[in-house]
Known about the structure:
5-stranded antiparallel sheet; binds flavin-adenine dinucleotide; binds D-malate; 478 residues; 36% helix; alpha+beta
Amino acid sequence: xxxxxxxxxxxxxxxxxxxxxxxxxxxxxxxxxxxxxxxxxxxxxxxxxxxxxxxxxxxxxxxxxxxxxxxxxxxxxxxxxxxxxxxxxxxxxxxxxxxxxxxxxxxxxxxxxxxxxxxxxxxxxxxxxxxxxxxxxxxxxxxxxxxxxxxxxxxxxxxxxxxxxxxxxxxxxxxxxxxxxxxxxxxxxxxxxxxxxxxxxxxxxxxxxxxxxxxxxxxxxxxxxxxxxxxxxxxxxxxxxxxxxxxxxxxxxxxxxxxxxxxxxxxxxxxxxxxxxxxxxxxxxxxxxxxxxxxxxxxxxxxxxxxxxxxxxxxxxxxxxxxxxxxxxxxxxxxxxxxxxxxxxxxxxxxxxxxxxxxxxxxxxxxxxxxxxxxxxxxxxxxxxxxxxxxxxxxxxxxxxxxxxxxxxxxxxxxxxxxxxxxxxxxxxxxxxxxxxxxxxxxxxxxxxxxxxxxxxxxxxxxxxxxxxxxxxxxxxx
Length: 478
Ligand code: FAD
Ligand code: MLT
Ligand code: ZN
C-alpha cells in the first residue's frame, strides 16, 4: 500500500530535520529513545517519531519551522523530572520530542548586574554552581536539581524550597529567548530590573509548560551569597503549631527564614525505612516536624542566637516539643536529606495519589485536618503523607495505598480522591497545582476549578501564539 500524503509529508519533514541538526542531533532507535518516552514515576509512557536534540537556538528555530509547515506536534523536554506528564509525547506516536539537553552553555555572568545568562538545557545544579563560582547565589533549589534543567524549571514555573524568601522561578527571570510556534526567534534577553514598555511578554512563556513557545535561553537574577545559614529540625505539636512557629520565626529573625518545610511522622518513617544512612535526629516522637532554615547576609552568631530564642519561646508556648540546630554543614545536609528523599521513600510503599496544592498559609492546618479526615473516611487504612513547603502554603498531600492493597486498583481511584481533596482546596481559596503544573495529569481538574473566563483567556492565548496547535499538543489547555 502507498503511504498516505500525510505520512509522506511527515517523512520528508523528518529528513529535513535530520539535515538541520546533523548526526549528533537526533535519535530514532527505539532503545535510545526509551528514556525520553517515560516519566520518572511511570505514570506516563508515550511513543514518538523521533527525539531531536538541537545544538543551538538557530537549529531549534529551523526544526520548529519544519514542524509548523508539516503540522507535526513537538513536545519540548528538558530534564524530564516533571511530575504531571507534560514532557512526554502521546502514545499515538506521531509527535517529535524536542530535547534541549545539548544547549547547556552559560552564555554570560555579570556579577555587578547580579545576572547570569544561560541556555535552556543547563542543569539547575550547574547554574547554581556557576553563580557560586562568581560569588553569587542562584536561589532556585529543588530535590531534582541534579537532573532538571532551567528550561523545564522556567516552563513549569518551579517552586522548591526557597520560595518563601526568593519567590518562584518566574520571579527569578529578567529576560528570555523563545522560539515561537512558526520558528521565529523572540530575543527578549534583557538584564533589566526596570522595563515598563508595555506587556511583560516573558511572563506568557513562564509556566506555560511548552504550549506557547520554546524557551532556549534566559537571563536569571542572582543574589548575594548568605554569610550565615542555620538549619533546624523541630518536632511540633501539630500543623497549627508549625504555622504559629513560622510567624514567630519570621518576626524573631528579622524575616530571615528561607525555608520552612512541614514533614509528617508518616513521611519521616518512610524515609527512615527506605533511605540508607538516615536516622531520626530527635529523641521525641511527634506526629509533625518542621525543617527550618534561616539565612542572613552577615556572618557571625546573631542569626543562630535569634533562632534559638524563637525555638525556646516556642517550647515555652507549647508549640515546640523538641528540636535541634545543625552544628555543621554536613549535619544540615543530613537534615535536608530527610526532607528531600520523601518522594523516593514513598515509592516502595506502593501506589501514591498525589496532590500538589496551596492554600493561604494560615489555612494550612484546616486543610490538612479536613482533607485527612475525608480521605481516611473514604478509604480506611490509606496513609496520608503530607509534607512540603508550608511556608508558602504549599502542601504535597500525597496519599499512599493501604498496606497490602492492590496498586492498580488503588490508583484507579485517583479522580475520586482528587475531588475530595481539591473541593476542600477550592473552599479554602487555594490552588489545585501549586508548583508542579498541569501537564496531562490535571487538564480536567483545571477546567473543573478555573473560572470559565480564565479558561477562555488561556485558550485565546494558545490560539494566538500557536494557531496550528503544534506546541505540546494536548497539554494544559491545548
Ligand atoms: P521537563 O520535565 O523536561 O519538562 C517540564 C515541562 O516543561 C513539560 O511540559 C515540557 O514540555 C516543558 N518544557 C521543558 N523544557 C522546555 C523548554 N525549554 N521550553 C518550553 N517548554 C519546556 N517541582 C517543584 O516545583 N518544586 C519541587 O520542590 C520539586 N521537587 C521535585 C523533587 C523530585 C524528586 C522530582 C522528581 C521532581 C520535583 N519537582 C519539583 C518537579 C520537577 O522537578 C519540576 O517541575 C522541574 O521544574 C521540571 O524540570 P525539567 O527540566 O525536568 O522539565
Ligand atoms: C517535593 O517538594 O519534594 C516535590 O515537589 C514533591 C513531590 O515529589 O511530590
Ligand atoms: Zn515541592
